[in-house]
Amino acid sequence: MTIILLKHSQLFFCQKFPVIMLFLCLFLLTARSSGLLQFPRLQVHNQLVLLHNVVARHDVQMLLAIFETTDEDLPYAPDLINASKTVWISINSAEFTPNSEILANLSFRLPPSNKKYEHQWLMSSSPSSPSGWKISGVEHFTWCYVGIFKCVVEVLSGFQNQI
Fold first, then answer.
1. Given pLDDT bands bounded at 50, 70 and 90, which one contains residue 163?
2. Which helix (H) or strand (E) holds 52?
3. What is the value of pTM for the model shown?
4. What is the mean pLDDT of residues 88-116?
5. Overall average pLDDT of the 73-87 stretch
6. Contacting residues for 137 by C-beta, under 8 A, at least 6 apart
7. CATH number at residue 73
8. Residues 6+ apart with CB under 8 A from 160
9. Strand, coil or helix: what is 146?
10. What is the DSSP letter of 95?
11. What does the angle CA 61 – CA 135 – CA 117 come to, to the nearest 5 degrees?
12. How many whole angstroms separate alpha carbon 22 and alpha carbon 4?
């Protein structure tokens, strides 16, 4: 027969363990539902994978769902799809802003030179997007929030003209 001897501090922990686990579970559930556990880099990665799939399928409706768009963006959707076909996008960093948006620092590379261009995208939470986030701002000299497709096309076209 084995006898287990517990120190007073260990006994206290064992008695309080169910309470501690309950608080931990409640914290994790609350943090998950409030978005505290949604890591920005992972959200940006998911958005870029979704963008890649949309471009591969030429899916204009889905493209409209992952960007914050206006009526003036629609004519630029085919141009955005065509301009995005050969671009390699990588994530340098991503962080939450004080407004609970995600600021993503991205690198864009275009073959054949593979020269790197850096830009920032702003993503806002959106239940209407399949990923839960929409690209709501694009850095192009200044920030574009309206006419975002045109800005992205100009950015990508500018990269291609510099090669």
1. very low
2. helix 40-57
3. 0.69
4. 91
5. 88
6. 68, 121, 122, 143, 144, 145, 148
7. 3.10.450
8. 83, 110
9. coil
10. E
11. 115
12. 26
More confident of the two residues 5 and 154: 154
Would residue 13 count as lying in a domain? no
Domain contains 34: no
Is residue 58 classed as helix, strand or coil in its secondary structure? Answer: coil
Q: What backbone phi and psi angles, to 5 degrees, belong to 102?
A: -115, 125
Task: Name the average pLDDT for the chain.
Answer: 79
With respect to residue 27, please indicate whether it lies within any of the assigned structural domains: no
Give the domain extent around 78.
40-162
Q: What is the pLDDT of residues 31-40, one digit of tens each?
A: 544 555 559 9
- Domain tally for the chain? 1
Answer yes or no: is 20 within a domain: no
Q: Is 118 helix (H, G, I), strand (E, B) or coil?
A: strand
9-61 pLDDT, tens digit per residue, is 544 545 555 656 656 556 655 554 455 555 999 999 999 999 999 999 999 99
Q: Are 162 and 86 a contacting pair, CB within 8 Å?
A: no
- Helix and strand numbers (H, E) in the chain are 5, 5
Distance of CA 77 to the CA centre of its chain: 20
How large is the angle between the packed helices 77-84 and 40-57, nearest 10 degrees? 100
